[in-house]
Amino acid sequence: MSIDSSVTRPGAGAAGASAAPDPAPVYAAIDLGTNNCRLLIARPVRSGFRVIEAFSRIVRLGEGLSNSGRLSDAAMARTIEALKICSEKMARRSVSSARAVATEACRRAANGAEFLHDVKAATGISLDIISTAEEARLALNGCSPLLEPPHREAIVFDIGGGSTEILWARLLGGGRTDVIDWISLPFGVVNLTERFGPGDVQSGSYAQMIDLVADALRPFEEKHRLSQKLQSGQIQVLGTSGTVTTLAGVHLNLPRYERRYVDGCWLEFPVVIEQSRRLASISVPERALHPCIGEERADLVVAGCAILEALYRFWPATRLRVADRGVREGVLVELMGQRRQVNGGGRR
Predict the structure, then answer these.
(1) 271-303 residues labelled b (16+ CB within 10 A) or e (exposed)
(2) CA 309 to CA 315: how far, in whole Å?
(3) Is the Cβ–Cβ distance between 292 and 257 less than 8 Å?
(4) Does residue 25 contact residue 54 with C-beta atoms inside 8 Å?
(5) What angle do CA 125, 127, 129 make, to 5 degrees?
(6) How many other C-beta atoms lie within 10 A of the C-beta of residue 228?
C-alpha cells in the first residue's frame, strides 16, 4: 500500500538516519504505547513511502500502572516478546535506519528506565521515551496527508492507552502544518477502564468517564473557543487511535478489520456518538462478538468512546475523519526527511 506523507520539520527530536549510500534504504518505526506495540517497515517512494511490512500486538504494557506506579513483570514480559518479533522482522528486511519510541506507560513508570535496559538486552532495540509534545507532533506529521482544503485549520486527537493528545493546527498547504496549541490529557483507554471498569450506561460509569475527561478538556476550549470556530466550517476534525478505527470498522459493518476501508474515511460524527452509546449499553461479551472489536478490545473500547464523547461535547463537528496512521508514520517521515537532508538536497 502507498502512504503519501510530506516532511514537516524534519529531524526535530528524532535520531539521525545513516548517511552511507544506500540505493534501496529500508526504514522502520516502532511505537510502544500503553496498550499496543506497533511496527512499520517501509521504503521511500516519490509520493512518500511504501509499507513493506506491518505488525501490531496488544501488550497492555500499562496494565496496573495507575495503581502501582510500576510496570508489572507480566506486562513487561509480554511486551519484550512482541519487541523480539519486531527485531526479527527488521533484521529479515535489512532495515538501514530505525527509531523506536515509547510513550505514556514508560513516561510514568518508576521502573521505566530499567525496562528500557531489559528491552535492549533482550532484543537489541533502543527505545526512546518521548515527551507528550513530541508524541503529539509525530502523530500530526503522520496524519497530515489526510488534512485537506477547504479547511484552514484542524483539530487532531489521538486517544491512547494512558493519555490523549489533542492538537489545534493550521493547514499551510502541500501537507504542511503548523501547531497552534496542544494539550495532553492524562486519560486513555487502559487507565480509565482500570478506574471505572469496562463502562456501561446502566451503572453511570460511562457518564462519569465522559464528565472526568470533559472537565480536563474545558480549560483548553475556554482558552481558544474552538467550538465557535468550528461553526465556520473551516476546521477539520480528525481522529487517530484504536478507538476511532474500531468504531469505523463497526460502523462500516466490516466482516473483519481492513485498513484500506478505514484509513481516510469520513464518518458522521453524531452517528459515531450514537454508536458509542450503543456499545456502552451492551455487555463485554456482546462487544467481543463484533469482529472489529474482539476479545482484546471489548473491555477497553467504551473508555475510548467516553473520551470521544467528551471531545464531541465541546466540538460537535458534523463529520469526523478517521486515520489508521499516526506516530509510526510520523517517525518514518522524519527519518526519511533526515536522509534527504544528509544526502544533499532537501528535495522532495
Answers:
(1) ebbebbeebbeeebeebbebebbbeebbbbbbb
(2) 9
(3) yes
(4) no
(5) 175
(6) 9
Name the pairing type of β-strands 235-240 and 319-323.
Answer: parallel
What is the number of residues in the chain? 348
Count of beta carbons in the 10 Å neighbourhood of residue 326: 26
> What is the value of pTM for the model shown?
0.86
What is the CB-side half-sphere exposure of residue 161 using CA atoms within 13 A?
Answer: 26
Q: With contact defined as beta carbons under 8 Å apart, do 288 and 295 qualify?
A: yes
Question: pLDDT tens-digit profile of 165-178?
Answer: 999 999 998 778 99
Residues 247-297 have pLDDT tens digits of: 999 999 999 999 999 999 999 999 999 999 999 999 999 999 999 999 999
Query: Strand 235-240 to strand 266-268: parallel, antiparallel, or no bridges (unpaired)?
Result: unpaired
**3 state SS of 43:** strand
